[in-house]
Design goal:
- The protein has 558 residues and is of the alpha+beta class.
- It has five domains: 3-166, no CATH class; 175-257, Immunoglobulins (Immunoglobulin-like), CATH 2.60.40; 267-366, Immunoglobulin-like; 370-470, Carboxypeptidase-like, regulatory domain (Immunoglobulin-like), CATH 2.60.40.1120; 475-554, Carboxypeptidase-like, regulatory domain (Immunoglobulin-like).
- The chain has six helices and 35 strands.
- The two termini are 21 Å apart.
Length: 558
């Protein structure tokens, strides 16, 4: 791990600041207000570029000629504008990260130089402005499009989707390439039309976009390695062609060559059908064929191919390695339970034989998905329409939850982030319904405006009963965050981490210039809060039901 990566990890909590999120409506309004301000700033940047021939070094250079109101640089939700490293401006308070600034990018190059080089690969999806105030980072692409992401936008699905729409860059202007030749192993014949997928490329510790290429009539293709003379480079190259097989190869700095040959062996064709429990064909199911990695024990299997079933539920893979003994088949469908099958010596549940795969008669049976249903009502029992309902796999089981709760309470340990959730809204009668395709314990949570967050835990099953949620009035929790010297700590993130019944990670407040915070949406039961600030150890407090006293939370410097 290089110096840049370590620095990013150290600054993570500082970068991911967010405002107090009292209600869903306020959160939406704050996000839209930031979007409007960011668009005005981008317009000013582009006007500056048109008149001066280059973009400004810092956003403060826009004031007052191109941006008359300096307040446009400050978000209404930012409790400490200008105090955090990736959005610091040398002259004016600023809430937004200006990605094309003249600041050093932890080395000899500036942010602008690195981002301009990123655009050669990613195209105009590269953000020109970023806002770290909300639960997800709000990115304004150079193109003028918005998308949200986690900290590293380079690997986010949102950025990839926008890149597919806008088009990527043509590649590094000063980049280097390997001339790859793909041939048939047995005969040495060049293979035209072989797909070459290039992944895991790294530049300045930042991911580069994947590239999908095809060999020409002579079996040749230029594989982009990245920029010339980088600190280090790595990439994974996977070559595929129907009827042939080759394992993916990892290329690293020191082993990169100007020319390389990959030999593809003749593969076996395997297949079968995907059916329901009653034997009905399932069309549109996705079948992932995976191979054991062959590396260290515990390493994940490698994806060999993906096939989608036709109207008769049939699927085919034309590139299984000849003589294979071990394969894993992962099957998924929108209305079915996810399933996995291992190639083994019998056809018991969860297993499939090599003979059945090779004869293309393997039957993969799927169970129907669970249907998560329920109704959200207010304290008076009346249904609440338009309420956000979030559903996610519970990180720990029922038996472990109390132990986790007590350990966190005793040690003030860090919160465990909840896995990504699926969010939907109740209809006018307060009802919600959605299929769920994975087994395990679920947490179902409702967050109505003006009430406390309410959640229940249930086991996902095809015949699971409705999960009804009755919300309760919210209570207020207030407090002051100080350092070991008793001085207020501004800009501390306050996270709601759960109750005795469920775990969650939701930012609910941020401390102001006096170190004070207030959360008006707390449940009436005992709740856990975690306090995070860059350069300090996180602190966790458990607030009993009925507590009305203001908290005083000390943070210890790292």
């Amino acid at each position: 791990m290089n110096r840049f990566t370590l620095t990013v990890l150290a600054l993570g909590s500082a970068i991911l600041l967010a405002s107090a999120t009292k209600t869903f409506a306020e959160t939406i309004d704050a996000r839209e207000a930031d979007k409007a301000q960011m668009l005005r700033i981008r317009t000013a940047v582009m006007t500056y570029k048109k008149e001066r021939g280059t973009i400004p070094d810092h956003l403060s250079d826009l004031v007052p000629e191109f941006l008359p109101d300096a307040a446009m640089l400050v978000s209404a939700g930012d409790g400490a504008p200008g105090q955090y490293p990736f959005k610091r401006d040398p002259r004016l308070p600023c809430s937004y990260g200006y990605e094309f600034s003249a600041h050093s990018f932890f080395g000899p190059k500036t942010f602008r130089e690195v981002k301009e080089e990123q655009m050669e690969e990613f195209g105009p999806v590269v953000p020109i402005l970023r806002c770290f105030i909300h639960d997800k980072v709000l990115n304004l692409a150079y193109s003028g499009d918005f998308y949200e992401s986690e900290l590293f936008w380079e690997v986010s699905p949102e950025a990839k989707a926008l890149m597919a729409k806008l088009g990527g860059g043509s590649g590094f202007k000063n980049g280097e390439f390997t001339l790859l030749k793909v041939i048939e192993d047995e005969t040495g014949t060049p293979l035209a039309g072989a797909e070459v997928r290039v992944t895991d490329r790294i530049y300045h510790a930042l991911p580069l976009p994947d590239r999908t290429l095809r060999t020409d009539a002579a079996g040749l293709v230029r594989v982009p390695l990245g920029p010339a003379q980088p600190p280090s480079r790595q990439l994974t190259v996977a070559v595929s062609k129907p009827g042939f097989y080759a394992a993916p190869e990892s290329w690293e700095e020191g082993a990169l060559a100007a020319e390389k040959t990959i030999r593809l062996s003749r593969g076996e064709v395997i297949g079968g059908s995907v059916q329901s429990r009653a034997g009905t064909p399932i069309a549109g199911a996705k079948v992932n064929v995976l191979l054991p990695s062959g590396d260290a024990e515990g390493a994940p299997d490698r994806l060999l191919a993906t096939s989608t079933t036709d109207a008769q539920g049939r699927w085919l893979c034309e590139q299984a390695p000849k003589g294979f003994e071990a394969l894993t088949l992962q099957v998924s469908h929108d209305q079915s339970w996810k399933a996995a099958f291992k190639c083994g010596s019998d056809d018991a549940k969860g297993k499939v034989t090599r003979e059945a795969l090779v004869s293309r008669t393997a039957v993969l049976r799927m169970e129907p998905a669970a249907l998560v249903t329920g109704v959200v009502t207010g304290p008076d029992g009346q249904p609440l329409g338009g309420v956000e309902v979030a559903i996610w796999n519970t990180p720990v089981g029922k038996a472990e939850r109390r132990l986790v709760f007590e350990n966190a309470r005793a040690t003030h340990g860090a919160a465990t982030a909840a896995p990504p959730s699926f969010v939907l809204k109740t209809d006018s009668s307060g009802r919600f319904a959605t299929p769920w395709r994975e087994p395990g314990e679920l947490t179902i949570s409702a967050s109505p405006v003006g009430f406390a967050r309410t959640a229940r835990v249930a086991e996902a099953a095809p015949d699971m009963p409705p999960v009804d949620l009755r919300v309760t009035p919210a209570r207020q929790i207030t407090g002051t965050i100080v350092d070991t010297a008793g001085k207020p700590v501004t800009g501390t993130r306050v996270l709601f981490i759960g109750t005795r019944e469920y775990s969650v990670e939701q930012q609910v407040a941020i401390s102001d210039e006096r170190g004070e915070f207030a959360w008006d949406g707390a449940p009436s039961v005992e709740v856990g809060l975690q306090f995070q600030h860059a350069g300090h150890f996180p602190s966790t407090e458990w607030i009993p039901a009925g507590n009305k006293e203001a908290l005083k939370v000390p943070l210890r410097e790292r």
